[in-house]
Amino acid sequence: MSPVMTMEEARRLARERQDCSALLGLVPYVAYLGLRVDLREPAAPVLHLPFKRSLIGNSALPAIHGGVVASFMESAALMHLLLMLDEQRVPKSIDFSIDYLRSAHAEDSWASCAVERLGRRVAQVQIRCWQADPAKPVALARAHFLLAAEAPA
Q1: Burial, 17: exposed, middle or buried (Cβ in 10 Å; 0-12, 13-18, 19+)?
Q2: Nearest-CA neighbor of 9 among 27, 32, 26?
Q3: Please, are residues 112 and 54 in contact by the beta-carbon 8 Å criterion?
């Protein structure tokens, strides 16, 4: 049995080897969704939600459940922060606001994030989710995360 990997080791693997599996494994729901990270552009990672039939919320369309879309986007923002910042703990979600623009069809989804505001204790992240065409987003969201407190000097 291998020892538990630290956040720092998981981030190093992601950055140096483009292997995000340990970092993704730090958040159980992210692992459950089966998220993947595309690091071809290290400064702008793209998160990928592979389609599974269990994600369907409306079988008449069929469409991915809105809660899955929202949790994917929030998880994408969290993973973005873990990759971009040197946090020692997983940031905690403060709030999340989503605008659904169209149905998420029964296919793979992607999300990109941008840290719009970064303070000592709070980060604001904008998230864009799309499917076949990045120019036609499925949803847009904004999230705030509480960052780990700095260690006393």
Answers
A1: exposed
A2: 26
A3: no
Write down the CATH number for the domain with range 7-146.
Answer: 3.10.129.10
CB hemisphere CA count around 99 (13 angstroms)? 8
3 state SS for the chain? CCCCCCHHHHHHHHHHHCCCHHHHHCCHHHHHHCCEEECCCCCCCEEEECCCHHHEEECCCCEECHHHHHHHHHHHHHHHHHHHCCCCCCCEEEEEEEEECCCCECCCEEEEEEEEEECCCEEEEEEEEECCCCCCEEEEEEEEEECCCCCCC
pTM: 0.89
Q: Over the stretch 59-115, which tens digit does the pLDDT of each residue have?
A: 888 999 999 999 999 999 999 999 999 888 889 999 999 999 999 999 999 999 999
Of the candidates 29, 25, 1, which has an alpha carbon nearest to the alpha carbon of residue 13?
25
